[in-house]
Amino acid sequence: MTTNTEATRRGVLGAIAAGALAATGGAPAAAQAAGKTFVLVHGAWHGGWCWRRVSDALEKKGHKVFAPTMTGLGSCSHLLSKDINLATHITDIVNFVEWENLSDIVLVGHSYGGIIISGVAEKLAPKIGSIVFLDAFVPENGESLAATASQPVKDAIAAAQGRGDHSLKAVPAAVFRVNEKDRAWVDAKCTPHPIATLTDKIAITGARDKIARKSYVRAKGYPSVAFDAALEKYKPNSAWKTFEMTAGHDAMVDQPQELTDILIQVA
Q: Rounded distance, CA 244 to CA 219, Å?
């Protein structure tokens, strides 16, 4: 039999425990289990390193985060070769998700990464709960990045091919409007990008468009006709959420907290 004194004591202890949990930012196991799984796909010349600030911020919120680096870039730059093509990079991400046994993922693609995640959706649509294009290309079937890129990038690709190069030198961070403080760091980390991945045409059937949650985030601090067109295309489409940031093209570097908040919102 429980006395009134015992019941009161237990109630007080329970209230103290709950208060301590709230004060320390703790959460019960059920709440922690609600964390999402993010797979962050970098753009051309970059690597998983560019997502570090966003990864840290998401993990602090209790989410699981993966930022794989594609073949020939970043930490895998020693594997750069003429044999790397668009299929290589799409397979990089597909295999990563498969081998890590991930599901219900929030798949985010930055810039060139938009082409990659479109290809990944063709293979893994049932595993993707939300797909996010961050200042990214959203290709149609049969398109290549080279065909839709800005004229300077098109010219650079043509010049590199004319020299017989199999990779394209990194674009300076200043061109992408990266904030001045981080430009030297970004330039030091960026590596040449395999050209075939930019000239190959993607084959897609629309799996991307069948994913329940779709978002486009435009970093307006970087001028781009292609990205502005994508934003305007999806703004009136009720199946898509759209966002505008004031950051330069590398929004994950310039405004990591704001981007983190957006990613959590669309997850």
A: 6
CATH number of the domain encompassing residue 205: 3.40.50.1820
Catalytic residue of the set 55, 111, 130, 167: 111
Edge-to-edge strand ranges of the sheet holding 105-110: 64-66, 37-41, 105-110, 128-134, 213-219, 240-245
Told to judge if 111 belongs to the known catalytic residues of this protein, a careful annotator would answer: yes
Q: Is the pTM value of this prediction over 0.85?
A: yes
Residue 4 within a domain = no
Q: What is the pLDDT along the chain (267 residues), one digit of tens a residue?
A: 444 444 444 444 444 444 444 444 444 433 333 799 999 999 999 999 999 999 999 999 999 999 999 999 999 999 999 999 999 999 999 999 999 999 999 999 999 999 999 999 999 999 999 999 999 999 999 999 999 888 888 899 999 989 999 999 999 999 999 999 999 999 999 999 999 999 999 999 999 999 999 999 999 999 999 999 999 999 999 999 999 999 999 999 999 999 999 999 999
84 lies in some domain = yes
Tally of structural domains, the chain: 1
